[in-house]
Design a protein that fits this description.
alpha/beta, about 35% helix, four-stranded antiparallel beta sheet, 12 strands
């Protein structure tokens, strides 16, 4: 379980200090599929980065599996069992997919066969990708799925995905939905996804709505989803019922 208590984060700008997150209290239990949604600029991605260790909160605490991880680095959190998938996956010129999966799993001896299983789980034909470089020759949808495969290879207790649908075409988005359905069914860890998309919200166990740096709604999907689908301010500038993305 991950528990967040009284968490706040802000930045300094020309007008002084700007609060991004204010007094966030949140608990996500084990084996839970949680989606965090809300208006653009509301603090969702900032919260994801704080949970992953990319950013450090100015107030509050984060406890994961009974251990206070508030001051831990992103590397130490990865060792503790937390994975983070960036909104825009990182490209690695000169590194092949097999190398990335071995790095993610922490097993330099990870076999081609084992790596291919992870690629197959995210809907990629393993023989076409296992020796590909993780560079600009891959589309956005391909990179997203390879990144998810690397999270699977890590066998994380908590996997965090920041807008996995961003920048991909409709075909790739439809495949991602099936990938997340499979992950939900097969994993025993917790998953947190930052998303506006209705189809991702529909497969959640729990939905958390963040607006202006505060949690304004949280609870079971069946209780929260009907309330937010008709409320533009609760789901962001992009309609959750429409997937309009440039071709990857």
């Amino acid at each position: 379980m991950i528990s967040i208590k009284n968490l706040s984060y802000g930045v300094d700008d020309e007008q002084g200090k700007k609060d991004i997150l204010q007094d966030i209290d949140l608990e996500i239990p084990d084996d839970c599929f949680a989606v965090i949604t809300g208006p653009n600029g509301g603090g969702k991605s900032t919260l994801a980065k704080i949970l992953a260790g990319v950013l450090t909160p100015q107030k509050g605490s984060i406890v994961f599996d009974g251990q206070d991880i508030t001051g831990m680095s992103i590397t130490d959190r990865a060792r503790a069992g937390i994975s983070y998938a960036f909104q825009q996956p990182v490209r690695f010129k000169g590194i092949e997919v097999i190398d990335l999966l071995r790095l993610a799993s922490g097993d330099k001896a990870l076999s081609i066969g084992e790596a291919c299983e992870y690629l197959s789980e995210v809907g990629l034909c393993a023989r076409d990708y296992i020796k590909r470089e993780v560079d600009a020759s891959l589309s956005g949808g391909e990179l997203k799925r390879i990144e998810i495969a690397s999270v699977l290879a890590r066998k994380s207790k908590l996997a965090i995905f920041d807008e996995p649908e961003a920048g991909i075409d409709l075909w790739s988005f439809n495949n991602l939905i099936e990938v997340f359905r499979h992950i939900k069914q097969s994993t025993h860890g917790s998953i947190i996804i930052i998303s506006h998309q209705e189809r991702i919200l529909e497969i959640a166990d729990t939905i958390i709505v963040i607006e202006n740096g505060r949690i304004i709604k949280q609870g079971r999907k069946d209780d929260i989803l009907p309330d937010i689908l008709g409320t533009a301010s609760a789901v962001g500038e992009c309609s959750v019922k429409t997937q309009k993305r440039a071709k990857a």
